[in-house]
Amino acid sequence: MRPMNLGEILDRTFELYRKRFLLFVGIAALPAIAMLGLQSADRAWVHTDRLLGPLNRGEIIIWSQVVWFGYAHISTFLAILFLPAFVRAISNILFGEKATTLGSLRFAGERWPRYLWIAFLKLLAQFLLPEALMAGVVIGSALVLDKLGLLEPRDFMPIGAAVLIPLAGFVFLNLWVASATSFSIPTAALEGLSGIKAMHRSWLLTRGSRWRILLTWAAITAGVWAMAGVDVLLLQFIWYILHTEWHLRWFNEFVFLQLAYISYTGIAALTGSLYPISITLLYFDQRVRKEGYDLEKMMEDAGLTVAAADVPMRDEEEPATVPQSDAEPGLNRIGAQNSTLG
Predict the structure, then answer these.
(1) Which residues touch 300 (CB under 8 Å, ≥6 apart)?
(2) What pLDDT, on the 0 to 100 scale, is given for residue 31?
(3) Considering only CA atoms, which of 3, 6, 91, 1 is closest in space to residue 335?
């Protein structure tokens, strides 16, 4: 429990992942399997890729991106919902307490309305509002260019600028909001905060460390994408051998896609815990840097802390407390002190 640089955070992430591999994979497998079931149901019954009927090549590309964005939103929502289980498990490991998959999931399930509301707020702030803003800018730019007579099919530059500039703004805003609200679930799980208070607490606590959060996410994402790239090449090789060379009729496009979904599920289960581990470590690191949490924890473990009820308060002060049932064991007093920041 000390301030760590980015390299130490990543080293500690992989150390914890390696030591408790089955615990973390067991939690990460649940949202991955849920996404596999959703995609399989879509391919078998819903067919979102053909909801709009016959489309030309350009329309197919656009609609496929819309479907992909939908899946990305659902995947992000599920990841946020399961994040409290990771936070609970990592906190228990760091403080020498028993950590199990079932216990961590039970902890998250007991407070699911709180985490559901925070997941919605994060999805709204990170995706929906920036997307609505981007769509408005694109439509407004297109109308202005059309009035100026610059929106011609052969003029690629105005059309590209009208789309790419808002898209770049959306990516920047998405990453910035994601980093600023990345501690909302840890504060909710470990400090007993909820909703807007957890988001505001995260906003304050991430100050001075948002670039570290973005770089951590980028490093882990790059590794996951590298694994996915290798997986795609392997699947294409299997397709070439079985379908093209051996002419096996049963190995059709549907089988290929299902095999791809299963392999992606395996990658998600194997790597889905890396970012939750690192973001929880960054949360504790920020509390050590900004609030001296390591000293508070040492004093608490040594029995040197004074109960809040025994501390005389001025008349104008009002105690800020967190119910015992809503706070992490051993952290409820500190969570009560910090809830005033929210």
Answers:
(1) 330, 333, 334
(2) 94
(3) 91
How confident is the model over 237-294, as pLDDT tens digits? 888 888 777 777 777 777 888 888 899 999 999 999 999 999 999 999 999 998 888 7
Query: What's the whole-number mean pLDDT along residues 46-69?
Result: 77
SS3 state at 205: helix
Nearest to 93, CA basis, from 11, 202, 17, 26: 17
Amino acid at 260: A
Residue 198 tokens read as 């957890």
Q: In whole angstroms, what is the distance from residue 194 CA to residue 186 CA? A: 11
Q: Are 277 and 27 in contact (CB under 8 A)?
A: no
Domain range list for the chain: 6-341
217-246 average pLDDT score: 87
Torsion of CA 12, 123, 173, 84, to 10 degrees: -20
- Answer whether 23's CB lies under 8 Å from 101's CB: yes
Q: In the Cβ-directed half-sphere of 246, how many Cα atoms lie within 13 Å? A: 12
Distance CA 302, CA 304 (A): 6
Amino acid (one-letter) located at 114: R
The secondary structure element, H or E, covering residue 111 is none
| Count of CB atoms situated within 10 Å of the CB of 281 | 20
User: Alpha-carbon torsion 323, 329, 332, 335, what sign?
Assistant: negative
Cα 217 to Cα 274: distance, rounded to the nearest angstrom? 9
For residue 317, the SS3 value is: coil
CB 284 within 8 A of CB 90: no
149: left (phi over 0), alpha (psi -120 to 50) or beta: left
Write the pLDDT tens digit of every residue in 161-179: 667 777 888 888 889 999 9
Residue 183 buriedness (CB in 10 A; 0-12 / 13-18 / 19+): buried
